[in-house]
Every structure is written in C-alpha cells, then in structure tokens.
Amino acid sequence: xxxxxxxxxxxxxxxxxxxxxxxxxxxxxxxxxxxxxxxxxxxxxxxxxxxxxxxxxxxxxxxxxxxxxxxxxxxxxxxxxxxxxxxxxxxxxxxxxxxxxxxxxxxxxxxxxxxxxxxxxxxxxxxxxxxxxxxxxxxxxxxxxxxxxxxxxxxxxxxxxxxxxxxxxxxxxxxxxxxxxxxxxxxxxxxxxxxxxxxxxxxxxxxxxxxxxxxxxxxxxxxxxxxxxxxxxxxxxxxxxxxxxxxxxxxxxxxxxxxxxxxxxxxxxxxxxxxxxxxxxxxxxxxxxxxxxxxxxxxxxxxxxxxxxxxxxxxxxxxxxxxxxxxxxxxxxxxxxxxxxxxxxxxxxxxxxxx
Length: 355
Ligand code: SF4
What we know:
The protein is of the alpha/beta class. It has helices at residues 46-53, 78-84, 96-99, 106-117, 122-135, 141-144, 154-166, 184-201, 212-218, 236-241, 246-254, 323-337, and strands at residues 4-15, 18-30, 35-39, 61-68, 71-72, 89-92, 172-176, 204-209, 221-226, 229-235, 302-303, 311-312. An 8-stranded mixed beta sheet has the order 6-7-8-3-9-10-12-11, with helices on both faces. A 4-stranded antiparallel beta sheet has the order 2-1-4-5, with helices on one face. α5 crosses α7 (154-166), α7 (154-166) runs parallel beside α8 (184-201) and α11 (246-254) crosses α12 (323-337).
C-alpha cells in the first residue's frame, strides 16, 4: 500500500442542468519522496479530484477509496479529516492573494495553522512562522513575518503559501497550479523551491497543472486527465518520448517552443461538457485517429508499449508508440488541423530538462 492511494474515485455534482460528472474512476498513488504530475486542460477533473481527497468537494456525490497511511478518507468524520487536512496532507492553491486573508499579518496566519493543530504557544508559533518564511527564501523573515499579504509580491505570496503548507511537516503536499498566476522567472523560482524542499524534507508531492513543461521538470510519474478520467499514465520519460494517447500527443504539440519560432498549435476543438459527455471515447470529436468503435465504446486504461506501467485509454494498437511513431502521430495531428510545420514544439523553458 502506498502512502496515498486513490482507487476508482468518482465525483459528481447534481445541478439544475443535469449531473456534472467531474471525476470518473480515477486511480493513482504516491509514496514518500515521489512526485506525481497530474496534467490536463481546465475542466478535466484534476483539481476536483485533489479537493475531494481533502473532503473539500462540498455537495458532491463521491465514491471510491482514498487511503492515506492506512486510513480511509472517504466518509471519514469531519473532525478526523480536519486533523489530517493541513497537517498530514497540505495544499498549495493557485492564487495566493485569494487564499491569504488580506486583513491579517502573514505570520499570524501561519501561526494560526500551527495552533489549529497543535498546542504550541502563540510566541513559539510566531517564531516557527518566521523560520518557515526563511526556509522558503523570504529575505529578512523576522521583519517580514509581521507584514500583510499586500506588502508581498505575487511570487513572495506563493512562498508564504508554501511555508504555510509545510508548517506541520506534512507527508503529502498537493500543489494545484502553483505557478499559474506568476510570470515565467518567478515560476521557475517557485518550482525550484518546491523541488528543493521536497528533496530536503522527503515529502510526497502531487503537482496539478495544465503545463507539461512543469511536469517535465518535476514529476516522476505522469497522469494525463481528460473529461474526468485518466487517459494515459506513465513514467515521465515514457510520457514525453513514447506517448500513446492522441490527447497526450496534442498536449505535447501545444507546448510553446522558444526555438525555431512557428505558430502555437493548440489541441483542436473544446473539452466536452461534463454534463453531456460524448458517447464512446470522450476525445473522439477532437481526435485525428478516431475509428468506427471510438464513438461507440469507451476504452479503459490498457497496457501499451514504451515502458513498465505505461497505460493508455485508446483503441490504437498498443505498440503504436516510440519516438518515430510519436513524431509521426504528432505530424499527422498538426497536419490535420493547421498545417503548421515543425516538431512537437516541446522544448520550451522546462523542456530540455525532460531528457
Ligand atoms: Fe482517438 Fe479513438 Fe484513441 Fe479515442 S480511442 S483517442 S478517438 S483513437
């Protein structure tokens, strides 16, 4: 059993327009010191899955299993869940400005997190808050600990959020789009910080993003989500160099490149409504490879070539992988939509470190 193991997680929300099927049978796991990257477009269900782990999907119908250190979190009474949330499993949210209370000093907010879970004195919690700010690279932490959130830059606020997440030495940190609101230079600094802290503290890290460049830099394992399901799962190198699922290939092709110029090549079409999912494979209306059965039967994750544990939910033959095949499919996908020339486009700011 892994440190955190999610099995067949399903999350849906009843609405006036119908049932939103946000997460459909998702499974993944992570161990101490590992990084799992979950990638997909907005609405693919990745954030809802993470929120559900922490019991934050209010009003949702949830089924499946979330085991953490041998304890089942689904259905756990709120007081017991609250003892785990923030302390054993912590979350770094996308937008630190809306996550931090604007009227309280950052040190007070970190100290409250500590005091909510332990009987630490106010003075000791405040000192610990300053230490944490120093640990995440905020200069002059003993002075800055008494500043308000608006007195920090966006990158420094995200460092404060990371400090808060680490305040109680969690076993698992879930970072949900931790760099989306930041400019490219600050993004790189925050990612470096997360990796350094993970190395030093041995935390398990689940990083949720739409940015394959972030995953290339950080993840050991990659899960690609589409329409509430995992459609491809693999070790990082396999996901990048031997991708099988046409959606993964489309994501790879859409990463902006800083070399060679060329046009941006987004995945054609729009993600489906989670209320009215297409029949069969939910990607088929956007897929250059669709065949007869694709619109009728939804594929399960199946083992494919390219590496141990490489699985894809696609009816393409399992051996349609490998650098040559990946390049061929990518070229076909590109030709099928815009005719834009060039390679996969993967090779941007973080791309080179995938090798
Ligand atoms: Fe494309 Fe068919 Fe594979 Fe879906 S199952 S990704 S439609 S080839």
